[in-house]
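Example with several molecule types.
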Amino acid sequence: MSTQTTTPLAMQATGLTKRYGHVVALDGADFELARGEILAVVGDNGAGKSSLIKVLTGATIPDAGTVFVDGAEVHFKNPLSARLAGIETVYQELAVATQLNIAQNLFLGRELRKPGLRGQIFRQLDKSRMRQQAADHMKNLGIRIQSINQKVETLSGGQRQAVAVARAAAWGKRVVILDEPTAALGVRETNQVLNLITRVRDQGLSVVLISHSMPDVFQIADRIHIHRLGRRAVVVSPKTTSMSDVVAVMTGALPADAVQSSLIATDAPPKPAGH
Amino acid sequence: MQTSDRARTDTGQAKIDAEPAGSPPAGLLAGLRRAATGLFAYPVTGPLVALVLILVVFSVTTSTFLNAGNLSLIFQQSVVVGTLALGQTLIILVSGIDLANGAIMVLGMVVAGSIAANGDPMLGMLVGLAVCIVAASINGLIITRFRLPPFIATLGLFTILTAAARLYTQSRSYPINSDFMTILGEGPSFGLVTITYGSMLWIALTLILAYALNQTAWGVRVYAIGNSPAAARLNGVNVNGVIFSVYALAGVFYAFAGWQALGRTPIADPSGYQIANLDSITAVVIGGTSLFGGRGGVAGTFIGALIVVVLKNGLTQAGIDSLYQQIATGFLVILAVGADQYLGRGQRA
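Resulting structure tokens for the full complex:
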């Protein structure tokens, strides 16, 4: 995957700054996301995780700093421009319409119309094509459901979140950002969603996982971005850094240079993302 | 769809989820509720059963109700409220409500009537249509731009437009002499039965709107917005744009309703149709469209409008005072909204 590209990074940001009055939400934050990896973003409440994600998804325009997608500088004006750049986000609140069925949810806002006059003049939806594509997509991601025509209200919380993740994976050409996707779920459902996230990664997408749950993070993350006081403290690998050390850096009990950094140097030759 | 191989999935989870939602009394009540929920999963079932029941009751209790002439009359009496209710359905589907629709229709009628009185009925019709669309769009604008609750916005417009229609006409009414303006009251007759062009128009408009709601992306988005505006917005739907389009399009239906009204009674009267707004809401709610938005449709509204009119007509046939008719309609609304609340609970997460 990285052979034909000049940078191993799907997304990068340098020196992001965002102030709200006297409050500094982002204080020169850096960010890097390798292709095909799951990067967890962790940090204490108020560390600036949300502000970072809002900049990366176009929801906030930073006061200073630069964002790169596939090595090219981008300037997102709104969430739509981030979306057009291939970055999809699954928000904390379950962003599904419960009265619509699974296929309708997957295609909401991007519906397919029938070819020819029926589509162009009468604006008729191509329901069978959408159903077929949605079913194939859910199958590829290993999401097991009874019928693609089920209303989402008939699904469990974990299945609903799976639909939201599947939707993001379907439309995200490069990056899928997940904001606390398991916060509202039980243990078993959390595992199902975590497995789904790894399958999304295995399909070649890059995943950013914002989470408060250290077990979740250590279960699936390839690298962990620790955010503290409005900037990136360090990026570590869950293989070389313990859960307690990550928490210690998060809270400031341990200095960031006391743990082994897993940063990918931007001038280094491309290398496969760490698994 | 290749679903058979995963058909057995996750039923265990569904059970786990259902448990905390289940209420203590359980037993018979829960069983009844489950049965009712299953039956009402097909949304037109409830209204249709209610309509049939009411028809049977009036057929048995009165001698004048069940005959072809009266049934034909009921259909003709339904077209105005039925057409208004089509616009109202759209608005309620996006969790809105329109208290001004009768006033908008009447304003369109008197403007059209005044221009027709000066000798140009065609121009009158076009200006009347424009008045309805503009007035309904003002509703949409206030609700989407200034974020006022639809109830307040349309209540304000209702008062304003009712007064405006009277000021415009100086409380006079305009008799309509144009054949074209009253044509919807005409139609082929078969003995006592007259199938008016207005009835045909009502059916056609219902079918067109049903198509738009069920077969186009716009329709899916209308349901999505009524269901969860946040989810629709997060998924890239232009929520305010769709809501505005709903109000503006409702104006077109109000204009058609005004044309229907001139076919029924060829007078453009500024003091007519004062509770048409409530009748249209009643028709929509009885027709099974949820006041919370996102559930229901125009097929139910079609039946709902018939129920409203059948109830009035039947009670009149039974010799019951019109004040009691209003009481009966009020009970029906409360019953319908109550059923919506009760059956819908637990489905909205």
